[in-house]
Design goal:
With 263 residues, the protein is α/β, with parallel strands linked by helices. It contains 9 helices and 9 strands. The strands form 2 sheets. Strands 3-2-4-1-5-8-9 form a 7-stranded parallel β-sheet, with helices on both faces. Helix 1 packs across helix 2 and helix 3 packs across helix 4. It starts with a strand and ends in an 8-residue tail after the last helix. The protein binds adenosine-5'-diphosphate and magnesium ion. Residues 17-18, 41, 44, 46, 104 line the site of magnesium ion.
Length: 263
């Protein structure tokens, strides 16, 4: 059976792609699935590093089959594309026995990132609740908040959808979620939500609930554990941790992954 492929993408850094890729991977691992993880942001390598800390942990933690795919060192554009395609496809073959593949991508447009997007069954795009982040999805008029045209990242996804259609694959289920939400209400926030709702209908994504800003996400990296390991490893869960874990479960439910996950 072909692995189900989940890609975390947004042509913007610091929105939570690697953090959420790690949490979704651990959720799937701890649910008993065979999980392969791929880092095509090998330059930054956050996902790879988080998993390296996890592997080095003295605690007994679940681990995926992981590979990082570095950019090609060749100098000719055609050769680079051929080389990266070959290595990407080899990694996919190495992981063909997995139930799920989770792929983390960089915050900029690279050929490896495009390849990853073209294989996505589900694409999760986290963004901060700010018009700066929204700008990679859509150009918005400052006067009346009218959305003017989809921008670079929306176009990337659009192109990858076309690539998939050519291959006869089913469309990407594109999910956008807000991350690092501030609990305070602001007018800006209301405006962003209006634009996101309109945009979701126009360019075809599903808008999930999202995650609040919580310090715990920044504290776990070095230990290699996630919110989902805390209880098993003797950590005390605060109310904020429980709420964050609940948000993660809501994301997983919202993703409607294949039937295996129904349990
Ligand atoms: N919900 C959150 N609350 C607080 N900090 C977060 C949250 N999500 C991510 N972060 C932090 O934001 C920073 C960027 O996250 P990261 O996952 O590396 O983003 P990306 O992969 O999109 O560049 C990291 O320091 C991470 O720990
Ligand atoms: Mg990252």
């Amino acid at each position: 059976m072909k692995p189900y492929i989940i890609v975390f993408g947004n042509e913007k850094g610091g929105t939570g792609k690697s953090t959420l890729a790690m949490h979704v991977s651990v959720y799937l691992l701890n649910s008993g699935f065979q999980v392969g993880t791929i880092d095509v942001d090998a330059r930054q390598g956050t996902f790879t590093q988080y998993l390296a800390h996890r592997k080095a942990s003295p605690l007994s933690l679940t681990l995926p089959k992981h590979e990082a795919i570095a950019k090609s060192s060749l100098d000719d554009k055609e050769k680079i594309m051929a080389d990266e395609t070959k290595r990407f496809e080899q990694t996919m073959r190495n992981m063909s026995d997995c139930d799920f593949l989770v792929i983390d991508t960089p915050g900029n447009d690279t050929f490896l990132s495009q390849l990853a997007h073209s294989f996505a069954d589900t694409l999760v795009t986290p963004l901060n609740e700010s018009f700066v982040d929204l700008d990679v999805l859509v150009k918005v008029s400052g006067d009346n908040l009218k959305t003017m045209r989809p921008s670079i990242y929306a176009e990337t996804v659009w192109n990858q959808r076309k690539e998939r259609a050519k291959k006869g694959l089913k469309p990407i289920d594109w999910i956008v979620i807000k991350n690092r939400l501030n609990t305070l209400y602001s007018k800006n926030r209301g405006d962003i939500n209006v634009v996101l709702e309109e945009l979701s209908k126009r360019i075809g994504f599903r808008l999930g609930v999202g995650f609040c800003e919580r310090v715990i996400f920044r504290e776990l990296f070095l230990s290699g554990i996630t919110l989902l390991d805390m209880e098993n490893t003797g950590h005390q869960l605060s109310l904020s941790h429980v709420s964050a874990r609940q948000e993660l479960r809501e994301l997983i439910d919202f993703m409607k992954l294949p039937h295996q996950i129904a349990a």
